[in-house]
Amino acid sequence: MCSFSVRARFPALDRAILFFNDVLSPGDRQLHPTTTATMTLHDKFGRQITDLRISITDRCNFRCVYCRSADPENYRDHEEILSWPELDHLAKIFLSLGIRKIRITGGEPLVREGIEDYIARLHALGVEDLSMTTNGHLLAERCDRLLAAGLRRINISLDSLDPGKFERITRTKSFSTVMHGIDAAQKSRLAPAKVNAVLVRGLNDDEVESFAEFARDCGVIMRFIEFMPLDADRHWTRDLVVPAAEIYQRIHARWPLVQIPHQRSETARRYRFADGAPGEIGLIAPVTQPFCGHCSRIRLTADGKLRTCLFSKDDHDLRSLLREGASDEDLVTYIRSVVTEKEEGHRINEPGFVPPSRTMVFIGG
Ligand code: SAM
Ligand code: SF4
């Protein structure tokens, strides 16, 4: 897909990108990460924090059984959610602190109007690795604009290749629109898309081989994520988790896999097919093979709370600081002090583990 024609179709977006390139203030340029970022963020265990997940909304058009409840909406009020200027302000602060990777998430990020402009502004700030996680429902119609804004990588959730089962898991009838979204991403410069499946025992664990075949047929990076105790209905139990080792064995028995070297801070163990078929397999095993020792991530929730772990017991309130007029120096000092105390690891496998009060949709995965 040609970005030139995309820009011709969306002149307003093009102007926005030029505008943000042109009007970055000297202060903003000073915060430009690829040129002058001198600060870094470390915790007390020596881990450098370079990745930030930003949830831009707690709203979602799906109700996946392992994430949200079927109950009526329980969204936060609009004024509780960070505004775009507040999100811009915090992004600059984080970039000045050595954040290099930003993943935009939610809730469902594509339901918040203005996301393309936000991506364009992050892109103009020079984020090295800018990506988004989406359920794919609105992706086909938005793919061109997201690309033009500067999005370079995408993760799309897909928990079943069977339309009926997809409907039961997501409580929507959106199977075909999501498949169109994946198709649009694969035909664009976002390819290869990462396709995320959360496997739940007895629900969709019979589809491991079908998903692997999907990766081979479509050339996507098929990632299997272990079910974590972050669901709103609190149905998680250990025996609902499908261990990554089992997934590996099943795929490897059918299509031998070869490990791809990965960075230690990457969440996924990566594999290619030994027979040279396209596509890739990623295994994300936070429950059975925790990777906390090399974690480089922090999270900003839609309501402006900083979280140093998915399973943190406490949030740290950046929104109040911002709204009370804290200076950038105050914000930097606060963020540093919070990050220093990042948890050594989650405690899912320890006796007495208590899931965090915030569930996945309110954290941002
Ligand atoms: N709505 C978008 C989506 O579904 O891709 C982005 C937000 S969603 C919270 C981000 C990721 O978290 C998705 O890949 C989703 O499958 C995953 N997720 C949600 N609840 C989970 C859970 N309990 N255990 C493991 N992964 C979960
Ligand atoms: Fe929504 Fe994503 Fe949670 Fe599904 S996993 S309910 S799409 S936020």
Description of the molecule:
With 365 residues, the chain is an alpha/beta fold. It is built from 13 helices and 14 strands. Helix 2 runs parallel beside helix 5, helix 5 packs parallel to helix 6 (139-149) and helix 6 (139-149) packs parallel to helix 8. The longest helix is centred in the first third of the chain and has 13 residues, at 11-23. The chain is globular, with a radius of gyration of 20 Å. It starts with a helix and ends with a helix. Bound molecules: S-adenosylmethionine (SAM) and iron/sulfur cluster. The site of iron/sulfur cluster (SF4) has 13 residues, from helix 13.
Fold-level CATH name: TIM Barrel
Percent of residues in helices comes to 25-40%
Q: According to CATH, what is the class?
A: Alpha Beta
Which strand order spans the largest sheet, edge to edge or round the barrel? 9-10-11-8-7-6-5-4-3-12-13-14
Largest sheet: 12 strands, mixed
Class derived from helix and strand content: alpha/beta
Binned strand content: 15-25%
**Helix segment tally:** 13
Average pLDDT for all residues: 89
Element-level helix/strand string: HHHEEEHEHEHEHHEHEHEEEEEEHHH
Task: Note the topology.
Layout (H helix, E strand, L loop, with lengths): L2 H7 L1 H13 L2 H5 L10 E2 L5 E2 L1 E5 L28 H13 L4 E5 L9 H10 L4 E6 L4 H11 L3 E5 L5 H8 L4 H12 L7 E6 L8 H11 L2 E6 L17 H11 L2 E4 L8 E5 L6 E5 L12 E4 L4 E3 L8 E2 H6 L4 H13 L19 H4 L2
Parallel strand pairs: 3-4, 3-12, 4-5, 5-6, 6-7, 7-8, 8-11
Antiparallel strand pairs: 1-2, 9-10, 10-11, 12-13, 13-14
Bound molecules: S-adenosylmethionine (SAM) and iron/sulfur cluster.
